[in-house]
Amino acid sequence: MKKKIKIFLASPRGFCAGVERAIEIVNKTLLKYGKPVYVRHEIVHNKQVVEDLKTRGAIFVEELSEIKDLTRPVIFSAHGVPKKVPQEAKLKNLSYIDATCPLVSKVHRESEQLFKNGYDIILIGHKNHPEVIGTMGQLPDGSVRLIETSDNVASLKVKDFTKPLAYITQTTLSIDDTFEIIKLLKNKFPNIKDPIKEDICYATTNRQSAVKKIAPGCDMFFVIGSRNSSNSVRLVEVAKKAGCINSELIHFGKKLPIDQIKKSKTIGISSGASAPEQLVQTLINEIKESCEVSIEEIVVAKETVVFRLPKELN
Questions:
Q1: Most buried among 56, 77, 110, 176, using CB within 10 Å?
Q2: Looking at 98, 121, 147, which one is the last position of a domain?
Q3: What is the mean pLDDT of residues 106-128?
Q4: Among 153, 182, 199, where does a domain finish?
C-alpha cells in the first residue's frame, strides 16, 4: 500500500513576466532572422530552457568575442549587461536585441539618475551575479559600492562617503535579509535615500510570500530551479527560515530523495522564476510513483504583469 502524502503547491511559482519575455524574444528573433542567433550568457538561469533554445538554433556565448558570424543578431540576457557590452556590439557592427528584464532596467536608470544627481551609491546584491555586474557596469568603475551582508555594513565607514548616500538592490534578493541590511544602513546613515519604488521585484516578493505561508506546515520543501538562479536559491533559504529545515533545491540531474519523502506527511513545492511548470509536474508525477498524493494549491497573489517586446520584434 502506497504512503499517503499531502502536497502543498505554492502559487505564484515558476516563470515571471521578465523570464517569459526573454524566452519569447529568443523565439521571435529566430522566427524573424532565422538560425542561428547568438545569446550572450544564459538567457535565464535554467538548463532545460537553455537546452531547448539550443535545439531551435540559439548559440550561447559568454562574451561577444566568441561570436563567429558577425552578420547574425545577438541577444543580451534577462539579467542585463554592463554599458560596455552594447558599445562593443556597435564597434563590431553587430545587430543586438536587449532582453534585459524591464525591472532590472529600472534599477539601471535609477543608478544613472542618482549618479547624475551627485550621490554615492551602495548596491545590495551578490558579487559576480550577472545582474549585479550589469548594474555596476552602468556607471564608471568605483561609482557603486557593493555590499552582500550585514557584516559588510559594519565595515562601512561614515567618513568614506563625501556625498549624499543612496542605496539600490538586486531584484532577486531575500526580502527579509535585505530588510535587515537596509535597517542597519539606516541606523548608520540616517539620511540614506531609499529607491522611489522597492527594487526587489514583484515576482520575487510573491514567490517568497507563498513559500513562507506553506513551509511551516511541511516536513519537506522542494524548490525547483538551477543552482545559479539567485531567486531559486533564496526560496530554499526562505523555506528553511520559515520553519522547514528539510528544504532543498531540485536542480537538473538531482536525484529525488524518495526514501525521505516516504517518511513525510506533508511536502511543499515551489519553483524559481526561471523554471518551467513542466518540471513541477514531472516532480509531482515522480512522487506519485511511490506515494498516494493529494494536492492543495496555496495562492497568495495573482500575477497579471506582461512586458512588451522590444520594438525590433513588434
A1: 77
A2: 98
A3: 97
A4: 199
